[in-house]
Amino acid sequence: MTKEGVQGATEEEEQQAQSKKALKKQQKEAEKAAKKAEKQAKLATEQQSADEDDFAKDRYGVSAMVQSQHKLDRVLVRVQDLSPEKADQLIWLRARIHTSRAKGKQCFLVLRQQQFNVQALVAVGDRASKQMVKFAANITKESIVDVEAVVRKVEQKIESCSQQDVELHIERIFVISQAEPRLPLQLEDAVRPDGEGEEEGRATVNQDTRLDNRVIDLRTTTSQAVFRLQSGVCQLFRDTLTNKGFVEIQTPKIISAASEGGANVFTVSYFKTSAYLAQSPQLYKQMCICADFDKVFCVGPVFRAEDSNTHRHLTEFVGLDIEMAFNYHYHEVIESITDTMVQIFKGLRDNFQTEIQTVNKQFPSEPFKFLEPTLRLEYTEGVAMLREAGVEMGDEDDLSTPNEKLLGRLVKEKYDTDFYVLDKYPLAVRPFYTMPDPNNPKYSNSYDMFMRGEEILSGAQRVHDPELLTQRALHHQIDLEKIKSYIDSFRFGAPPHGGGGIGLERVCMLYLGLHNVRQTSMFPRDPKRLTP
Amino acid sequence: VDEWLSPPSATNMALRELASLEKYLGLRKPNKYSTQGDKKTPVLQNNAAPPLVGLLTIACHLLKEAKRPELLGDSAESRAVVQQWLEYRVTKVDNCSKEDVKTVLKDLNLYLQDRVFLAGNSFTLADVLMYYGLHPVIVDLTIQEKEQFVNVSRWFDHIQHYPGVRHHLPPVAVLRNRIYTSRHH
């Protein structure tokens, strides 16, 4: 036999073997397919019979998109109102699925509405079928549902929920808006205090991720509390000042000239010329005073084009500005502002305890302390306190941020207050329109206010005399042509006046003892962030 | 021998502290020192005997001259403790890195928790030399750090006010009250 012959024979055999193999394979595949079809058919019939068997199929499902088809006469109870007094009542409510956990014939849900949540339960029984429990368990987190349920008192407090004394036994559940299954961040991770759960390897969410997904981050209990408190600050500010006879004014934010130099202003194109975004409503407040409005305040955006990326700087923030005419001494202004601040602190303390405690859970801090009347220290006293603590600084040096913080600590230790006024700043470190001190020309009638050692307000008596104002402007080498209209405002009788501007975000941050102003700005703007 | 320097123009820290030690001990005539090597080790020329080399050797010699042997410890045990801290000063404190400084302060803070002086209840050479050695470190601490190492600060403040010790060094402000009471700032 030749080699080739041998090879041919083996090839033939091989082919035969291969065709046998293929046949077997085909047979197997056919069997498989048959089995699969059988199985599917069985499943389908099962499903059908199950659907037919599902006595609860009208009690759950995905609702049609709410397009205002019906005006349902249905009362939706708020989660925060679910208390033992409502026990055994059948109620409707709309909430988000915060978490869900299925366990055999039961499914536990935590339903959340703003910063409040309640435990709910779907269990197989005469109201809910197996299929309904399965459906409930499969609703994605953060979906919005309408639920009909009976309120039941519980034996043991539910520690993980805000409504600890009751739970809901769900009888109907409809999805109103479905959330995508993958969330960019988990709410539980976003409210976990620093360092907690580290052993279990649990995640915390860093600031940038939070801010990138602000809509979800704002749903956390902490964010909810922060911004409800912030709204409170604004309202207390308005109420207090209105009661004191102040008038709220609206000032333009697009201005033709920068108020204090031009270094830190945003330029915008304005038709054929350019304009600036206002760094403060300073000029307009003062013009209103010259126009006999006597006491004015203004709540609105303020822009700073400083390229500083710190924990307390934003490029756009909300300014709470005050300006008032006084009779003889600018301390009348200080007293008016400090009293307003004290009213705000008291209002927060008395009406926002829940919010404060909610924030404290994630970011613990000591309660905010203040004195009545507010402590007023002179700059020289502050410098003396710092020197005693070993800080070397000149009489007319400005306070550095670390020194400001240290002074805040020293003041807290000595006077037990987190809020104080530092009066009589050196004239050299203040803007040109600041009134010089009559007794010592090196100092000025200006002041800063501090919360927890950080500046929240800068203010002063303004120069209302056009001659002195011109002189001061020249001293600061300011182009008189650019501020002509400002100086001219004071030529036709200007009352002595003073004021100051507060940063809303800073006040909230420092009142709550937080560490980053972005936490108290809903959609923060800084040199590196323009979205969302 | 690299250079001859006489205090008070001395820029070398070891030489300045030896001069201060002399003053503290009340030695009438100031010695003349030189330094040797890259590390500027102090050298004392001794007329009758071979030169003395090294901070600790010279310091012990000065104590002998001043007839103040108790500054090296008044019992066998405290003498051992004093030697230990003197060694610690030249091996751990001198020329230590920024991270090492924190370790030194942490250890010392714990050690001084229940002691007035390094060797317990009496003032010794260990306190003087550790004070001189730590001075540049303590000067740079923030108030918050001084409060963090509160026992070191208390001891340091005590020694800098101990009659006759401070001499060439500027006083360091040490607050008597705690101002950083809460954990969160």
From TrEMBL, chain A:
Region described as Disordered: 1-54
GO molecular function, one term: ATP binding
Keyword Ligase in annotation: yes
GO biological process, one term: aspartyl-tRNA aminoacylation
Aminoacyl-transfer RNA synthetases class-II family profile domain ranges (all copies): 227-532
Primary location recorded for the protein, binned into one broad class: cytoplasm
EC number: 6.1.1.12
Gene3D superfamilies: Bira Bifunctional Protein, Domain 2, Nucleic acid-binding proteins
Localisation: Cytoplasm
Feature: compositional bias, Basic and acidic residues: 26-41
Gene Ontology cellular-component annotations: aminoacyl-tRNA synthetase multienzyme complex; cytosol
Keywords noted in UniProt: Acetylation, Aminoacyl-tRNA synthetase, ATP-binding, Cytoplasm, Ligase, Nucleotide-binding, Phosphoprotein, Protein biosynthesis
CDD domains with a match to the protein in the record: AspRS_cyto_N, AsxRS_core
A Pfam cross-reference name: tRNA-synt_2
InterPro entries: Aa-tRNA-synt_II (IPR004364), aa-tRNA-synth_II (IPR006195), aa-tRNA-synth_II/BPL/LPL (IPR045864), Asp-tRNA_synthase_2 (IPR004523), Asp/Asn-tRNA-synth_IIb (IPR002312), NA-bd_OB-fold (IPR012340)
Reactions catalysed, as given in the entry: tRNA(Asp) + L-aspartate + ATP = L-aspartyl-tRNA(Asp) + AMP + diphosphate
Family to which this protein belongs: Belongs to the class-II aminoacyl-tRNA synthetase family. Type 2 subfamily.
Protein's job: Catalyzes the specific attachment of an amino acid to its cognate tRNA in a 2 step reaction: the amino acid (AA) is first activated by ATP to form AA-AMP and then transferred to the acceptor end of the tRNA.
Subunit: Homodimer. Part of a multisubunit complex that groups tRNA ligases for Arg (RARS1), Asp (DARS1), Gln (QARS1), Ile (IARS1), Leu (LARS1), Lys (KARS1), Met (MARS1) the bifunctional ligase for Glu and Pro (EPRS1) and the auxiliary subunits AIMP1/p43, AIMP2/p38 and EEF1E1/p18.
Annotated protein name in UniProt: Aspartate--tRNA ligase, cytoplasmic
TrEMBL record, chain B:
Coiled-coil portions: none
Membrane spanning residue stretches: none
Source organism superkingdom: Eukaryota
One MF term in the entry's GO annotations: translation elongation factor activity
Protein's name in the database: Eukaryotic translation elongation factor 1 epsilon 1
InterPro entries (alphabetical): AIMP3/p18_C (IPR053837), Arc1-like_N (IPR053836), EEF1E1 (IPR042450), Glutathione-S-Trfase_C-like (IPR010987), Glutathione-S-Trfase_C_sf (IPR036282)
Biological process according to GO: positive regulation of DNA damage response, signal transduction by p53 class mediator
